[in-house]
Write a structure and sequence with these properties.
- It is a single chain.
- 25% of the residues are buried.
- The chain has helices spanning 2-5, 8-68, 76-83, 94-113, 150-158, 206-213, 236-244, 286-289, 291-337, 352-389, 396-411, 415-432, 441-458, 484-494, 534-538, 548-560, and strands at 117-124, 129-133, 163-170, 178-188, 194-202, 219-224, 230-233, 251-256, 266-272, 279-285, 439-440, 463-469, 477-478, 502-511, 516-523, 565-571, 574-582.
- Helix 2 packs antiparallel against helix 6 (206-213), helix 11 (396-411) runs antiparallel to helix 12 and helix 12 (415-432) crosses helix 13.
- The strands form four sheets. It has a five-stranded antiparallel β-sheet with strand order 2-1-5-4-3, with helices on both faces. It has a five-stranded antiparallel β-sheet with strand order 7-6-10-9-8, with helices on both faces.
- The model is unreliable at 1-5, 391-397, 538-546 and 588-599 (pLDDT under 50).
- Among the domains are: 69-206, Beta-Lactamase, CATH 3.30.450; 341-389; 460-582, Heat Shock Protein 90.
- It is an alpha+beta fold.
- The chain is built from 16 helices and 17 strands.
């Protein structure tokens, strides 16, 4: 309980002392082991990144050789030569000589493309054999049975795929054999019939070039082919240990004890290339890796003593610097609780505490602005409602009297007068219910039609109205008596000075992408100048008996927000007043996947 109610400065001081002393007691016994593990893990991570780079470089180089084997496909003359039965040299004609020159030019071009290509042979399915070697005897060895070799059989099985081997002794030429990596492919004609096998003899020296380019002193690299045979080794003793070790999985770590004869121990990572099937081992001297860890152990004891003393001093200073501004914020919060939205202190600090104080000050000022804004909006809302209520006909006896007159018109068989009185009665009834929250759009359109009938009685054959109401918005919720000022504005102002019948269109649609209800009242009357503002249209008639466009706009914005309201525009011969509000159901829920029922 005392820990919960104690001063923050005291608790922070005690906490810092505990956090500094307890770890100090453990550092001396665990520093070396933890640092060793850290260096071990970091070395494995670094070697893995370097190994990925090296493997990618080797795969990129082999991929170049893969593409080089496709060159014969771009020399149709060679395919014609390979499609013909072999002809002895004494029976060669001009066609055979040209084809032979083309073949010689192709084979001699490979070493110039890549210096690692030391030779090339093309074994035609028609029995022809052509070869080229950059140095040494380039005469084809007739005793070499290439068809018996595993790589040749693998090429035939791949049916056009590229095949890469490990280091092999090349005996296809007369003279002493030489070591090389064989990259080969089966060439096929347009009908996918085998024509020849092209085999490139690649010097494995491109691998040490890649290793040297990585600039990794002390790192040993061993490369094995898919059959586990040695392709390259930077240290023969490390390679012997790798070859003697059990076959490992595709990717992981490896560790080797001291080398025979008292050499250092190695640890590292390995990875198998998905493209080549080769396995690359990369390792580093374990003693060199742990050299930094030993230095850490030597300084551990001295650091423990210094940290314990420094932690006590720093904790006291930090606790003091933190508790003071916190108490200042607490006092200010108590003032805000009392309704005093003023920050009594200045923001001098530039650290996180200063940022907290500045954010708090902005929050207090923002709260003050919001409260004032809410008060102003409430005042505007009350003003708009009072302004709207002024348009209402207060005496209820007028409504009852009109009903009596309508019944008398029915008794005297004046159906038209009875219908008009009924429309006026509905308008008066709706006018007296202006406080209602929301009504269906279908009901609002019905009242608007009643109003139009009354206006048609007053201005006989002056206007025609076309109703374009989307059935899916019939039950959309709208404020009551919202559209009557728009239609009244169109009839009164649009028909001034016209010598023809005024056309009016009332449309209501939905926009699914924005979930909006859009209502538009358009007329082809006198209109207004294109540069006229909406406020000017609202001020055209400011009689107390008219609600006006301004009131309609204010009612929408006060209910739904500043993003909604009215827009007036001139489109050709039409004056269009557009109303936008959220598309909501009559119960107040926003329209989602369920279409509003039509009325």
């Amino acid at each position: 309980m005392r820990g919960k109610s104690g001063r923050y400065r005291t608790k922070l001081l005690v906490l810092f002392i505990l956090l500094s002393c307890v770890p100090a007691l453990l550092i001396g016994t665990t520093a070396y082991r933890k640092s060793s593990d850290m260096f071990h893990a970091q070395t494995e991570q670094d070697l893995s990144v370097i190994l990925d780079q090296m493997t990618t470089s080797v795969e990129r180089q082999i991929n170049d050789f893969d593409r080089f084997t496709m060159l014969p496909y771009y020399m149709p003359g060679i395919f014609q030569f390979l499609n013909q039965p072999p002809v002895s040299k004494e029976n060669w004609g001009s066609a055979e000589i040209v084809a032979q020159r083309t073949m010689a030019r192709l084979m001699s071009a490979y070493p110039s493309i890549n210096s690692s290509i030391k030779g090339l042979t093309v074994y035609g399915m028609n029995g022809s054999i052509n070869g080229y070697r950059i140095s040494g005897n380039e005469t084809i060895n007739p005793d070499a049975d290439v068809k018996a070799e595993s790589w040749y059989r693998q090429v035939l099985e791949r049916k056009g795929g590229f095949v890469i081997t490990g280091v092999q002794e090349i005996t296809q030429f007369k003279g002493a054999p030489f070591p090389a990596i064989i990259g080969s492919r089966l060439l096929m004609d347009d009908d996918y019939r085998p024509l020849a096998v092209i085999a490139m003899f690649i010097s494995p020296e491109f691998i040490p070039k890649i290793v040297r380019s990585l600039e990794l002193p002390g790192v040993q690299v061993t490369v094995l082919d898919r059959n586990g045979m040695l392709v390259y080794a930077s240290d023969d003793r490390v390679a012997d240990s790798v070859l003697a070790a059990p076959k490992a999985e595709k990717k992981g770590t490896w560790e080797m004890k001291a080398l025979p004869g008292g050499g250092p121990a190695y640890l590292g990572v390995f990875k198998t290339s998905e493209y080549l099937g080769w396995k690359v081992y990369m390792g580093i001297n374990r003693d060199e890796m742990l050299q930094g860890s030993r230095s850490i152990r030597e300084f551990t004891l001295a650091i423990v003593v210094a940290v314990s003393f420094a932690a006590a001093v720093v904790s006291w200073l930090l606790a003091r610097s933190l508790s003071k501004p916190i108490h200042r914020l607490i006092r200010s919060m108590r003032d805000v609780e009392k309704g005093q939205f003023q920050v009594p202190f200045t923001f001098e600090r530039v650290d996180e505490i200063g940022l907290l104080e500045r954010s708090y000050g902005k929050m207090v000022h923002r709260l003050d602005e919001l409260i004032q804004s809410i008060e102003e909006k409430e005042r505007q809302k009350r003003h708009a409602e009072l302004y709207a209520l002024r348009a209402r006909i207060q005496p209820h006896f007028l409504y009852n009297t009109l009903n009596s007159i309508r019944m008398l018109a029915i008794l005297q068989q004046s159906a038209q007068i009875a219908k008009l009185l009924q429309s006026l009665s509905k308008l008066l009834q709706a006018n007296m219910r202006l406080e209602d929250d929301l009504v269906p759009l279908a009901k609002e359109i019905g009242l608007l039609k009643d109003y139009a009938a009354l206006m048609d009685l007053r201005y006989t054959n002056v206007f025609d109205i076309e109703w374009r109401i989307d059935p899916s918005v019939q039950q959309a919720a709208v404020p009551p008596m919202l559209l009557q000022p728009l239609l009244e504005n169109a009839i009164f102002h649009g028909g001034k000075g016209l010598e023809r019948k005024l056309r009016i269109i009332v449309a209501a649609v939905r926009t699914d992408e924005n979930r909006l209800l859009v209502i538009e009242v358009a007329d082809d009357g006198a209109g207004f100048h294109p540069g006229t503002e909406l406020e000017s249209l609202e001020d055209r008639e400011r009689k107390p008996s008219h609600i006006g466009l301004r009131n309609v706009r204010d009612r929408i914005r006060l209910r739904f927000g500043e993003d909604y309201g009215l827009q007036a525009a001139r489109r050709g011969d039409w004056t269009c007043v557009t109303l936008r509000m959220p598309l909501k159901g009559i119960e107040g829920e926003e329209d989602g996947d369920v279409e509003l029922a039509s009325g």
